[in-house]
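Obj.: predict assembly geometry.
Materials: sequence records (below).
Method: joint structure prediction, all chains together.
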Amino acid sequence: MQHVDGNAIAGPLAEFFAFDITTAVARCNGCGFVAELARAMVYTSPAGSVLRCASCEQVLATLVESDDRAWFGFSGVSAIEVRRR
Amino acid sequence: MSDASTATATTATSEPARALAAVPRAGWHVATVAATRRETANAARLELEVDGWPGNAAGQHLDLRLTAPDGYTATRSYSIASSGSGTRVVLAVDRLPDGEVSPFLVNEVRVGDRLEVHGPLGAFFVWRPVDHGALRSAGDGAGGAASALRARPVQLIAGGSGIVPLFAMATAHAEARDLTPFRMLYSVRTPDDLFFAEELMALAATSDDFRLDLVYTRRTPDGWPNPAGRVTREALEGAVLPATERPIVYVCGSTGFVERVASWLIELGHDARDIRTERFGGI
Amino acid sequence: MSFITRGFSGRSHERDERLPPGQTLVHDFPVLSAGPTPEIDTAEWEFSITTETGGVHSWNWQQFMALPIDEVDTDIHCVTHWSKLGTSWRGISLDTLFENVETQYDYVMAHSYGGYTTNLALDDLLDGKAWIAFEFDGEPLDPEHGGPARLLVPHLYFWKSAKWVRGLVMMGEDEPGFWEQNGYHLHGDPWKEERYW
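Observations (raw C-alpha cells):
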C-alpha cells in the first residue's frame, strides 16, 4: 500500500483544530524524530488514516471518521510545537 | 520568565515560519461550476466560483464532497491550480481508472452544477512571493540582514498531474513579478498529456526567472533531443538547481515518483528539511 | 449544508438478505492497511498463545501446517460498508490451537507482525467461530491480505480478523486494540452495526 504525506489530511484535521495542525512540529515518542506533521507518512484507507513517523514508522496519530463523528488519536506524539511568530 | 520572553522576542523569524504564516481559514463552501474544458484526453479543467472563498496560497488543496441521493458521500482532495484573494478556484482533475469521484468530475460535471468544497487546506506545501519591500528595507539597514532574508531559489518537480499545485506556484511567481529564481522539472507521459501546456510555454518564454525542463516518459515530440524514459538520477542532477544553491524543492506526483525523486535529492546533497513533498498515492 | 450532487449515484445497490445493515456487496477484495505490508518468510514465522501464567504455546510453520486443516466457506463484512459473500478459506481452527491451553481469562489481544493489535472475547474465537487462515480462494494468502497467515473471525467486522497475526495474549479485562482505542467498537458485531464507540 502506498502512503501519502501528512498535509493530505489537513481537511479532516481542520475540524479539530483552529489552525492547520499539519504545519505543527511534533516529536515522535518512539525515536524522538522532530518534524512537521505534514512530513509524516500517512496510510489512508476507508477505515481511517494512520500517521507514521517518517524516521521510524511508529504510529504517531490516527484519524477515524464516521458519517456523523470523527476521532483523532495521537498516542505516538510526545509533544507538538506551534510557532507564535 | 522575563529573560525567556526577551530571548523569544529577539529570535529572528525563520523563512519557513514566514512561509507558513497566516493562510486563510478553512471552511465548507458551495462552489458553482463556472467553466469546464478538456485539459488532456484524460483530464478536465474546472473553474469554480466559490461563495465565501477566502482566497488561497499557491500550493494549497481543497476537499471536494459529492453526495448521492441515498445520502452516500465521497470526499477527495484536489490541488488548486490558482492562488490569490479571489473567489475563482481552478482545478485540473485527472481521471483515475476505477475512480469514484474523478470520472464524475471529468465526464459528468456541467457548468452551473453545485459542489461542496472544504478549504483552503494545507499550509505546509505552499509558496508565497517574497516581500521585496522588506528585503529592500532590511538591505538599507544592514547587509547581513539582507542576505539572511534573500529569497532562496525554488525548484519545482512534477510527475504527471502533480503539476497542479506547482503550476499555481509558478503562476503566482510570475504574477507577483517575483525575482526568485524558479526552475521546474515536469515529467509527463507524452506531449498530449501536458497540463497547462500553453500557459507553461508562455511562462518559460516570457520570464527570465522561470526555466522549464520537460521529461517525456513514453513518447517525445518529433525532434526531441532525449529519448522517452523515466526521470533518472542523472537526468535529475542535470535538470535541478544544485544543492550548493540551497533551493527549496517542491515535489508532487505519485507516491512512487516522489519517493524516487526525494531519495535522489538527498543523495545529491539536498537537506531533507528543504524538500517538501506532496504524494497523491498510486504507483 | 449537505446537498445532493446532480448526477452522482455513488455505490451500487445489490440487495441480498445475507448482507448486514448498512453493507454493500463487492466482488473484488479491497485492501485496508494501517501501515506498510510486512514481508514474513514462513521459515521465520511463528504463532503463539500466551496465558496469564506466562505459559507460551507456540508453533512454527511446519508444526502449524501439521495440525488438522478446516475448509471454511463464509461471508465477510468490513466496517467500511463492504461485504463479500461466499469466500473460501483454509485454516486451523482456534479450537485446535486452544486444545491444550489452560486459562481462566476471558479476553484475548491479537498481535500482528508490524505492530497491529485487536481485542476479542475468547467466546468469539472458540466453538468453530474463528481460524488462523493461510489460504484464500485456493491460493496461499497474499501478503497484502495478511499472508502468510491471518486471523479469520467472520462473524465480526473484518478489522477483528487481524492480518499477519503472530500471537494471542490472554487478558483478564477487555482492553482495546489499535482501532478500538481510536474510535472503533470494542466488539464489532455487523448484525448489530457495532461500528464505533
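Conclusions so far: The first strand of chain A starts at residue 4 and ends at 5.
To do: check interface contacts against the pulldown list.
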